[in-house]
Structures
1.
Amino acid sequence: MVGRRLRSLVGLAIQRVAGRFQTAPQRVLLSVLGVGLAVGLMVAVTGVSLGLASQSVVESDDVDYWIVPEQSNAESIAVSTGGLQLGDVHQTSAAIASDDRVDYATPVLLELVPVRDRVTGDRTYVLAVGVVPSPDTTVLGLPAGELTPGDPYYANGSYDGRWTGEAVLNDAAATVTNASQGDQLALAATNESRSFAVANVSAGGARTAGGTVPVMLVHLSELQSLTGGESGDAADQLLVSTNDRSVRSALAGQYPRTTVVTRSGLSAQQVSTSNLPLAIAVAALVAAVVVGVLFVTTLMGLEVSADRRQLGTLAAIGLSTRSRSVLIASETVVVSLAGGVVGIGVGLLGIVGANALAATAVGVDAVAVFDLSLVGYALCVALGIGLVGAVYPVLLSRRTDVLEVLSG
């Protein structure tokens, strides 16, 4: 009986909202658009945070452990980390590799590097990945074995050894630079005359929802010298290949404030409360709820004030105060859910726009991800906005004097 009555009230609420769309749609439309814009902004920003969190560690088919600074899983490999880095990485990786249980270890430095398009001469950006290559290894799906083994330019810390100038490009980098195997790639920085010879073009790289990030695999010391990383021998991560689980405890003690991530745990890695992506998503959620509730509360309150005669009539024909409250709350939730549907579309457009802007500005295919879970997330937030925003209109409806309204 209670369920049937509730369904009837919800159905009546939907009919009343639909009727207002036809007769006096201004306030309802403003409520829907207000919630839609708030939810849309939340979806777009959450999509960016998902993009940041989804590519937090450099993947390699034959690497079992990654040593990363605690802050690095708040950064995307689509941009330079620019935060906490590891130091003295050549000696540390060599010490790790000297362990009989370890097949190999290499530091990884990630930097956006401007290069010249070989056809147009225009500046474009690729993600340069600096490693200490060894035969039969891959990083981001690119064959590091195509580069000269070791790191000749490092020269035991003097950074005055032989400059190899070798680079392995993925297909995306070859496309944006119009380069192929054997070509020379000139850096676009005005104060740097170095160039790289394309040793190989291979499929691979960091894949995102919008495509593949242009990647250039080079020697670590050469990238350090171009970006200032030789001071302190800095890198962003250490990749370690091993089949022995006991190595992990030794890796955990190499650096303070670092995390050892396993291959199996990478896909299930959870974003901690200190991470930037989570902070961004939470800020977007709070802003969406506050803005959405303000819109719904104000405009639905005005709607109740303008609808006092109909509410009085419903009371006169026997609809109880509780039922009228459920009716008003249902109307508010219906309007909010309609705004949530609009917000999903707005958020999708925002994600597409953010990716287009990133592609234009820095040549990165995608910085934001639209996951289907965002649909459910947006609708749940819209439902919450409706429930919270319904409090004031319900209280306002309870103050309606039936006799005063009907006699006026």
2.
Amino acid sequence: MKSLISLGVVAALAAAAPMTASAQFAKKEDALKYRQSALQLTGQHMGRIGAMMKGDIAFNAAEVQKSANVIATLSTLPWEAFGPDTDGGKAKPAIWKETDKFKAASERYMKAAVELNTAAKSGNLEQIRKVFGATQQTCRACHDDYRER
């Protein structure tokens, strides 16, 4: 039930954050910094969980839960900073040419982040590992299509 509620919250947030730059971004550079910061923090927390999933560091369910919770929250943030005239950074021009496709990719990622957070709360390593892999795939797919290397 919690998972369904969480997915509903993500859907509502996605609908409320259309692909337009918010008034909070006075300059293009502000939008770039905002989205880059959210995505960089996401990468840090994905890396923490990933290190545990690979066995590079000992599995710690409480730490996975903390990072998964942060990832779920961060997953809702960067999208408003991809509005018109906010190109730049490592973002490919396709983001602004394929807005529906990009929005769908962001929604898949947000859903996966919620599922990761739910799995993390279980404390079950195998369940977390499976959902983490699926979450990584949503990240990778978006990076492949919309991020310059």
